[in-house]
């Protein structure tokens, strides 16, 4: 991985313009992370909102022939569906690849995750262990998902966040599970999945010739790593990355995406 350059918007704009102008590079799968990419990060995940430029871009992309649209998120598909309000036909990959859904004409179409008894028992232990890590620590709280629990530390003082994070990571170790250490979160899932595996499977299933993928967090690196030289991998925000293209934050990314969608429309 290399540190992303401070600004590389010219390169991103040129790459998107070239992709829009080349009808041979279809079908095109546009797969996008949600938090930190289409929606700026906020303290409370329930307050998270997609930027207007992103909503405009998704609506245009959804009606463009030869373009397939997917959102790829750590959120559950139910949460992602409600929050993103994505257009009909959009594929929703949730829980970092553990869940799949589709925005249908009459609402969300999806298969619910089924945990076996061992996984269900493990999920209870994960929830209890992370709740213990949050107990007595101001600004630390636990989010429960269909196959995982997440320790959130964004609102805690740095030393409090560090101690809670260490306890969360130690819990994962003691349970023999690899934790996902994202932006101010430690997530422990009881079913193994990655955005990379989910993206690769979706690409094959849809027969996409080219993929444009954008994301901001460590879990998005798994998706970037599956892309080839003719695909576009876009890192949003600071941090080390394997992505070739970069932009400063969700606002600049969504402005690029909206321009790209207008060029295709
Ligand atoms: O894959 P994503 O769509 O980026 O989802 C990753 C996680 O997003 C949420 O947490 C992140 O965004 C929150 C709201 O801006 C922020 O408060 C938190 O610190 C971030 O880590 C969501 O709550 C998680 O469940 C997702 O896994």
From TrEMBL:
<keyword id="KW-0378">Hydrolase</keyword>
<keyword id="KW-0460">Magnesium</keyword>
<dbReference type="InterPro" id="IPR003337">
    <property type="entry name" value="Trehalose_PPase"/>
</dbReference>
<dbReference type="InterPro" id="IPR023214">
    <property type="entry name" value="HAD_sf"/>
</dbReference>
<dbReference type="GO" id="GO:0005992">
    <property type="term" value="P:trehalose biosynthetic process"/>
</dbReference>
<protein>
    <recommendedName>
        <fullName>Trehalose 6-phosphate phosphatase</fullName>
        <ecNumber>3.1.3.12</ecNumber>
    </recommendedName>
</protein>
<comment type="similarity">
    <text>Belongs to the trehalose phosphatase family.</text>
</comment>
<comment type="pathway">
    <text>Glycan biosynthesis; trehalose biosynthesis.</text>
</comment>
<comment type="function">
    <text>Removes the phosphate from trehalose 6-phosphate to produce free trehalose.</text>
</comment>
<dbReference type="GO" id="GO:0004805">
    <property type="term" value="F:trehalose-phosphatase activity"/>
</dbReference>
<dbReference type="GO" id="GO:0046872">
    <property type="term" value="F:metal ion binding"/>
</dbReference>
<dbReference type="InterPro" id="IPR044651">
    <property type="entry name" value="OTSB-like"/>
</dbReference>
<dbReference type="Pfam" id="PF02358">
    <property type="entry name" value="Trehalose_PPase"/>
</dbReference>
<dbReference type="InterPro" id="IPR036412">
    <property type="entry name" value="HAD-like_sf"/>
</dbReference>
<keyword id="KW-0479">Metal-binding</keyword>
């Amino acid at each position: 991985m290399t540190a992303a350059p401070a600004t590389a918007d010219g390169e991103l704009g040129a790459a998107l313009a070239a992709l829009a102008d080349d009808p041979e590079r279809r079908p095109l799968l546009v797969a996008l992370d949600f938090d930190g990419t289409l929606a700026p990060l906020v303290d409370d995940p329930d307050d998270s909102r997609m930027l207007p430029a992103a909503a405009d871009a998704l609506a245009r992309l959804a009606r463009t022939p030869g373009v397939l649209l997917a959102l790829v998120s750590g959120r559950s598909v139910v949460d992602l569906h409600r929050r993103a309000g994505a257009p009909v036909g959009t594929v929703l990959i949730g829980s970092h690849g553990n869940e799949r859904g589709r925005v249908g004409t009459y609402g969300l179409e999806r298969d619910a995750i089924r945990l076996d008894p061992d996984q269900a028992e493990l999920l209870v232990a994960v929830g209890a262990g992370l709740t213990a890590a949050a107990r007595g620590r101001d600004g630390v709280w636990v989010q429960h998902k269909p196959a995982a629990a997440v320790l959130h530390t964004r609102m805690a003082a740095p030393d409090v966040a560090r101690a809670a994070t260490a306890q969360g990571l130690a819990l994962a170790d003691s349970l023999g599970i690899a934790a996902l250490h994202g932006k101010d979160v430690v997530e422990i899932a009881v079913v193994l999945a990655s955005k990379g595996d989910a993206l690769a499977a979706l690409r094959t299933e849809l027969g996409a010739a080219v993929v444009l993928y954008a994301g901001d967090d460590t879990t998005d690196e798994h998706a970037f790593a599956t892309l080839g030289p003719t695909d576009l991998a876009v890192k949003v925000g600071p941090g080390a990355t394997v992505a070739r293209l970069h932009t400063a934050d969700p606002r600049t990314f969504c402005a690029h995406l909206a321009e790209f969608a207008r060029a295709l429309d």
